Structure formats: C-alpha cells, structure tokens
Amino acid sequence: MPSPPRSPLIDPKYVDVPSQRLYALSLVCLCQAVKALDWLVSSDDSLQLCKKWVLVDLAFCVALTQLRIPRLHYSPSVVLLQILVIVIFDLFMFGGIRLNFGPESRTDLDPFSVFDILGPLSFGLLAANSLGSKDAHLLGQHTVRMSPISTARLNPHGHTFCLADPSASVLIPVLLNNTEISTLKYSLTPLGYNPDAHKVDHFQVSSKELKAIEQSRLELTRPAASNRDHPADEYDEYYDEQDTDSAADSSELQKTQSLVHIRLSRFGTVRLEQVLDSSSVEARLPYPSDVTVVPCPHVEFIEDTSPDVRCAGQDTDLNLMIDIRGVPPLSLRWYKVVNDKAEHFIVEGIDSHLSDSRSAVAGVRKQEELTVPLSVSLTAPGKYFYALEEVVDALGNTVKLSSVDSSKTTRTLSVLRTPNASFKNCGPSSPASLLIGAEAQLSISTGSSADLLDSPWEVSLAYKPFASEKKNHHPWKKTLSTLGSRRDLDVKVSAPGEYTILSVKGQWCQGDVLAPETCVVRERPLPSAEIEWKKIHECSGDTGVSASLVLHGTPPFQVYYLTQKDSEPPQEKAQTFPHSRGELSIQPPHAGHYTFRFTHISDANYRKVELDNGPSVEQAVHPLASAAFVGPQKRVLSSCAGSVLPLEVDLGGTGPWNLELRVVGPTGSEGMHFRGLKGQRERIEIPIPEVVDREGGTFDVDLVSIEDVYECKRAVSVPSISVSVKRIKPTAKFYGDAVTVLEQERTGLPVRLTGEGPWTVKYRRQGDAGIHAAALNSANDAISVVNDGLYQILEVSDSQCPGFVVAEASTFRVHWIPRPSAKLSAETAAAAKYEAYNGSHILEPICENMDAHIDLDLTGRPPFQIMYNIAQNSDTGGTKLLGQPTFNSIQPRTRFELQTSSPGRVYYEVKQIGDAAYPLSKHKNAVIPRSQRLLFEQQVNMRPLAHFRTRNRMSYCLNDAFVPHDALSLDGVVLFDGAPPFKLDLSIKNFGTSNVEHVQIETSESSWKIDLPAYEFKSIGPHLIVIESVEDASGCPQAPLDPLSSSVWVDVAETAAIIPFDRREHYCVGDVAQFQLEGIPPWTVGYSMNGKIYSEEAKVSPFSVVQTQPGEFKVTSIAHQQKMCKAVITDLRTQVHALPSAQVGHGKRVYQDIHEGDQAEITFTLFGEPPFTFTYQRAEPSPKKGGKPGKVLETHTVSRINKHEYSIFSAMEGTWTVTSISDRYCRYPQAQSDAPPSGR
User: Fold this and answer.
1) How far apart are CA 23 and CA 17, in angstroms?
2) pTM confidence score
C-alpha cells in the first residue's frame, strides 16, 4: 500500500496551496527573465554566468522538491530529468555546448568545456585540465575597428577673412568629421607670391594648441553680449558678424562633427596640408582647401582744411578726396543727401592697374592704397551730406561703415544763398515821409531767401542831409546788424535827407546791394484849406450850398464838416478829394433851415488837423426833383433776349413826376415821355431801336428832365445807360489738331469759344457710341480726356443761346507715347531658333553653372527697367516659377544674364518694361499682354556624373578576369547621369602591390556593369575601383564626384588549396588524416582512396578523412566559393614532431582604429620549424573593449611561411585570431580537439 502524500512544508493556513503554486511559478518566470537578460547584455565571462545559473537552477529544483507543493511535487526521477534538461539548456545558452552549422553559425561567445562547469562541482575530480585544454599555443588577438570617413574642411561655409590691423588676428574654422584630431599642418603663402622673392611658411598645430584656441574663443564670445554698449570703431560690424556666424556654425554641427580654428595674424593664403587623428590616420581634405587672408579694406575722407560752409556760386564743382586701401579691384558704396533728398551710388572696379590685362590672372594681389577724387556739384544752395557706406575688396571682404559720429566717413557741406539788401517801400521816386516832431522808420530787407546760418547780417548805411538842412544835420556812416535770425533791419531816423546802403555781408558770405539802395526822407508840412461858400438857387428857391476848396498838403485830402437842420443835433460828414482843388455841393433832400461849417482836414501824412475859424453858412433849403437809373450803367442783351429793354428809375422830390428820356441809336435818337409816375422807384420799358434789334450793336438811354408836382422842371445830369445788343451765336473749335501724351494719362484738349460763359460742349470719341458733355468756364478752356483717338465737337451752347461748331477745327487727335519694348539683338536672334507656334526663341544649349548671356535691344527712353519671369521644367511634367527679378539698364542695348545653376529647360518671359516715360514704380499694373511678350528658352545640360549603384564588396579569385559572375546582381553597376554616349575612366588599385591601372570604356547606355575581360587579378587582397572621370555627349565638364559612391571594393581570394595536417607514415596524434582548407567556404574536395573516387563538400576547415583501410589516399581537386577557384592537388606527406604555436599581436589583445580606405597591419608571430601553415579568422568585434569576439566573418589559411613573423594588411574591421598552426612536421590543435571530421 503506497504511503500517503506528505503535507506541504508551509502550512496552508498561512499560505494556501494555490497561492504557493502562484508564488513558485512567478519565481520561475522571474529567474528565467533575469537569465535571458544576462544572455542578451553580459558577454564578458560566459563561463561564470553558466556556473551561476546552473547552481541557481539546481538550488531551485531541490528547494521546490522540499516545499512539497501539491501538483508541483514530482518523483526523484522526474526531478533528475528536470535538472538534466535545465543544465543542457544553460550550456546551450552560455556556450558550453556549440553546434556548428557552417560559417554562418553564431559564435558570439567563446566555447568552453562542460568540465569547466563540472570541475568545481566535483572538487577537481573532473577538471578540464585532466582531459586536455588549449594551453598557450594560440595566444593574442588583433581587433580592427572601422572608423567613419575622416574629413577636414577648411572654411566650410566659404567666409571671407581679413585683418583690420597688423596686431589683429582672425580665427579660420576647420570642420572635422569623425576625426579626433591630434595634429594639424598648414602652409602660408604670402600675398603676391613670387618663388624667387618669397618663401612658403609651414606650420604645425597640436591638439593641445587647438583646444587652447577654442577655449579662448569661447571665453571671448560669452561676454560679447555685455560689450555691445561699449564704443567700437567703424570695423566692429564686420567682426561681430563673423563671431555670430562662428557661433551659429558651432550650434548647427552634427554629432560626428567638430569645429576647430586656426589663429592667423599674418596676411597670405592659408592652405590646409595635413590633418592627423589620434590614430595617426590622415583625414581627407576636400578641394579647395585654402583661404586667403588680406588686409581689411579701408576707406575714409582725406582731411580737408577748407571750411564746410560755402557760398552759392563760390565753387560749383568740388573734389572730395578719398583714401581707399585694400586688395583691388575695390567697390565702394556711398550716398549723398541734398536738401533731404537721398541718392545712393556704387563705384566698382577701383584699381590702379585697369589697363593691365595680366592682373586678372596674377592671383591675389597685395593691398594697395589709392587716392580717389569724389567729384560733387554744389550748384544749388542747401545742405549737402556725403557718407561712405560700404567698401568691398576683390575677395568679397565687406566693411560696412557707420555714418554716426564719424568724421572720417562723412562730410557735411552747407551752400548758403548770398544775402542782398534794399530798402522796402522807399526809393528815389517814393520818398519816406517824416512828420513834424516824429521819427520815420526805414525798413531794410536782406532777402527772404537768405540762409539763417549766415546770420546776423551787417549793413553799412550812409546819411547825407539836404542842402537846406546842412546847418542842422551832418552826414554820417554806420554799420548796423540784424537781431538774431531776423532778415529785416529797422532804422529809425529823425532828420530829412538821403540814406544810402553801401554794402551787406553775412557771417560767411558777402552780399549784393539791390535797388532801391537810396531812400529819400522828406519832412511833410501840416495840411490847410482855402474855402469859399456859394448858395445854389434853382426854380422857386434855394436848394443848397456849394463850396470851392483849395487844399494844401499831400493828397488825398479828407475834409470834415458839420450839417445842422433846425434845432437838431449837428451831424459830422466827410468828403474826400484826390486833388488839391475840389468842389463840394450840399443839397439836402428835405426842406428846412440848415447850418454848414468846416471843422478839420486830413491829408496823406496828418490826421484831422483842426481848421482855425472854419467858414460856415446858413440857408433855408427847398429840394428839387431828381431822377437816376437803378443798376449798372452798361447792359448786355443776348440774341435770345426780346426787343424791349426793362429799366428801373429812382425819383426824388415831390411827386407825381413827369420823366423825359432819350434813346440814342447808331443812326439817330428818339425822345420818350413817361407821365404820372407816382412811386419813388418806377419800372419802365424801352423799345430797342429797329436796326440794333435786327443786326445787333449798342445804343444809349439818357435821362433828359424831370418835372415835379410844382411844375418845376429841371434837367437831369446823370450817367446814361449803355446797352449792347449781341445777335451773334456762340461758337466752338479746337485749338490745334493733335497732342502726344503718356498712355492713360489725363490731358486737356484746348478749345476756343465765343459767346457768354459758361459753355456746354458736347463731343464724341471716334469709335465710341456715347456722346460726352463738358462744362467750360473760359473762352480758352480745355476738355479733359484719358483715352487716345480722334475727338470731334458736336454741339456748343453758352449761358444764353445754343451756337454752332467750326467745322474746319472740330476734330482733335490724341496720340500716346509708345511703351518701351524689348527684342533680341540681331546677333542673338540669328544664333537662336525661332518657334512660330509659341513665339519663343530657342537659344543654344549650355552646360550647367557656366556663364551665359544674351543681348537685348530696348526701345524707349532710358533708363530702362525690365521685369521678367523665369521658369523651369518641374519633375511633374509642368513648369515651376523660379522668380520674378527686375534689372536696370541705361543703354538701348543691354546684356541679359542667363541662369545656369540647375539643369533643365529654362524659360524666360519679359513681363514688364519700364523707361523714363513709363517707370515701373508708377505703372505697376501695366503688364505686357501674353501674346506680345518676348519669350526665349535655353536647355541647360547637366554635367555628366557617374556613381556605383551599390557599395557592396565584390569577390573574385586569383587570376580571374574582371567580368560579371552574376548577370542579375546589381554589384559593380555604374549609373550615368547626362547625355549618352558616355566615356568612363576607371582606376583599379591593388593594395597588395600598390599598383594602379587605368581603364577607359565607352557606352551608350545609362548604366554599365563592370566587364573588363582584359584585366586579370594577379594578386590577392583588396582592390579599390575608383571612378576617376566621366564624359558625355554634351561636352560639359563633369560634376564633382562623391568619394563615397564613386568607389567600390573588390576582394580577391587565393586559389583554393588543401594542406594535410598529417600523413600515414608521420602522425603527430591519432590516425586521422586532417587537411587544412584554404579559401572561402564552402569547399568541394575531390579525392580517391585505393583508386575509388570520392567528392565531398566541406563547410568548415579542417577537413578530416578517417583511414579505415590500407591503401593509397590521393586528393584530386579542391574548389571554394560555390565550386569556384578549383585547383588540382598532388600527393601530400607529413611527419609527427613537437606541436607548433602562434601569437597574434605578440600574444596580447591589440585594438586599432582605422578609416575607410586605410589598412591595418596584423602581425602573426610563429613558433616552430618553418615552413609554417596557419589559419586565422576574422570575427565581428565586440561592442565593448575586452569583450568576446562575435560572429565569424571569414577564415583564411596561409601556407609556406619561412619566417617566424608574418603580416597581413586589411581594410576591413573585425577581430583576427589564429585557429591553427602547422610547421614542417606537426600542427596544433590536435585532431581530437577540432570539430568532428567531415569525411569518412
């Protein structure tokens, strides 16, 4: 009866059984996860990891058995089986057991023996040494790591450099890629280098010096922001920009890039000669690798001692001398501001050797100092400001000059208007008046246009008394000055006489004395009057008084008198007399007793001078009848008016009245009577004389007499009415017949009109359906129009009547100034092909990035502005617009630069043309219609380019012809860009012999696979195939070749060989015949045993054959690389002796970094009796230093080595180790320790 199951070690009341199972399984998963992590990450010591996990798994299995968890508690046999499976699994994971499946099998970790694990567990009973170990026969390894391409580029961004002064220095950047720099070498060629007179200096800079330069540069750039406010000279802008660019370049570096700087304080051309990294490997230096450092261009005005203030007319032309230094030819930007109007100028080609045609090819010249005159015109008065803005030397070094507070780069000139002096409101013909007991003020003007900068002005004045005044006054001369900025000078005088201006001058300029330069001052007497009164008696009584006056003084005179009626208050009245004699009639309109008395008199000089005992008169007044016309004295009647003239008459006296008037015509007169007029203002109608009414003309209407109610009839003496009767209709005509104006510019068509304005003129433009009307106010007015064409006046009417148009002058034509146009010059058009279907001129093709131009003939008024579209074919089949630039020309024939920067079809379309009449700034919307635009196009041919489609390494056998092995493979395919046929120049470099051969081929296809049957590989090792040059049908120079895609590697292997490790009569160990295979696996080995032929495929070396029967063993052939490189093998013999040994890197671990294209030397030290045969392999290097090598990449066997040291060169990365060694008699390792034999 079986025993009952034992209860779990942990009581279920503490932890239930399902939870125990969960915890146990979770612990299993955790351990396996940690184990997998160790297998993926840790590769340093796989033996220790295997030991650790075997012990952990054993302990877990034992502990799980002791816990007695239900469903996880197994019998002892099952537990042993579990332990066995886990141990085998650990051995597989950590390399204790390794299965070889050919060269592609994983060998990341070094294999180790199972006894390495069981030894410590068996207390030494099953130690690895007891069964044999590798001992020290094969020691050392050489690891080559491939560093990326190391490059060094001088001045990567193409900046220009210059030194402002000899004590300054510049930092020239060197861009490093994948380079840990150790040494930098450069040369310095002086400017204007002459081999007979100069020498080239060479310099070497260590990495320590470069780091010191970088540290000082960083220290200078950090406080740059805080120093912005400090004063700087005019060249600071140049250096700030350079520092900013350097900082920007540093911030944009990629991870593999670094930047160092060469500090240079001398002038010359810097050429980068060599850059070595920490492995003493030369970095590649792209061409060009030089930069020229010259003195910074400098320009300033030469100090001038002449004053900056000049007078108008003094120096109309002036030369401002400029001192300019730099490498010619130089260009200078400057501008001037004349009276707040700025103009910018550029002067190019400043050189002292303009006539020397050799200067263009003489290289970089030395700095030259030139004195250049800047001719300026000072014709107009005002403020002249000249500033030097920017100077550029031949290398493109640009120095922007500051015009703020800089006396060397700016000049300011003031051209003053000359002052003038003359008397105002006084002269010989208009003397100044001097009143008795007062002063007269004379005003002297210095001119309203005189410059305030010239103030104050000094005026020299002379006085000369009249002959009658010489006793009381004496002549004198004085110099008077204006106050501040006042342009007028007031002089108070109290003596009569002549005052003369002698001269005038300002602070800078001598002025002119203008007329009137003499002022006569006369003393004026008081006015007086002689008055005589007379009574006026008419009809039945006195109607008023009259006074005869003789006036003394300066006319005009104003006489004041008082009029008092009865007891009413007196009224003061005044009468003005323009002459010294006058008559005054006073006839009051109302009856009464009046008193008249004169009181005061005024003339031009004195006001209200009292008349002593002014005469007076008293009189009883009875007013008479009177009549007068109302309104203007001249009347005009148009042709549209009637035959009656209406008039209004004002009547005075006592009504009713009888009025008599007379109509005076051109041939006679007629009297008319109007009786019983009762109103103070009456309207009467006068018939127009028949002749005047019919033909037009003038007639007068006179008032003859008026009779009041008292039958007192008196003649009326009032101005007559003059009437002009016009019976002529208005007319209209054009003045002239044509005018030429700008297109769409508003212009006036001059019109001549007759009649009474305003006029209304109707006109029409030829071709228009509508009729236009214009309102004109002047007889010489104009009709405003915009469009061109023929205009015709249709109707005219003035303010009164319609008129007629003068047929001979009824039309006027408006011409437009033609817009500017452009066409190809005759030479260019003859060289181009014209396509009529689209109107385009097809120019001759040109190569990419070559200079090209055409000549355009322009019509219009220079200067011209040409705006054009430039487009190019796009990848989608259409066209894309590249830009819409504008260029200027002052000549009717101009040179048009073509764009050749990118290949393809480039189209040009002239969109707008402006000239002096139609500038583009004012005619932005005036676009040339598409059908009229100038079109031309050009094919820009691509520069030929060739590159390999893939960079995969190719493999060939020794003595093979360089022909394709696989027609479908893309390896060795060269792709061409350009126009076929192509001519390709290849170079084949054998690194084993350092021999270089050049091959040239021609093909009409866009791709070509390397097929060179005439070339055979004569030695093993890497071969580099490089595309040296390529040409196509366009004849264009080739584009720069990419060094990465223009080369490919070819590995040439030796002929397959088999070398025995032992022979039947001489065995070193055992009776197994083993052979070392040379070449690249897999191998196909043919052999015969006792005359029977066998053939086997071996994937690994060595190849073993067990001799099971006596007889002759003979290897007939061997091939490798998929049965390639087949070789016939002869008889093999050997003898057993001491085991040989080999060391790589003298038994140490050697690590070496190389760049692509470079080679590393692997040294093998051989111990034994030569000749030697040894096998080495290349494996993937470990990701970290000291780790185990990874996957085996290739295996090679070298035989017949008679020296104890052997070296190979390789351009590939990996870890080289020796796997076996044979000397004259024996080999190591022994056959038992190798892989199982693959033979019989």
Assistant:
1) 10
2) 0.41
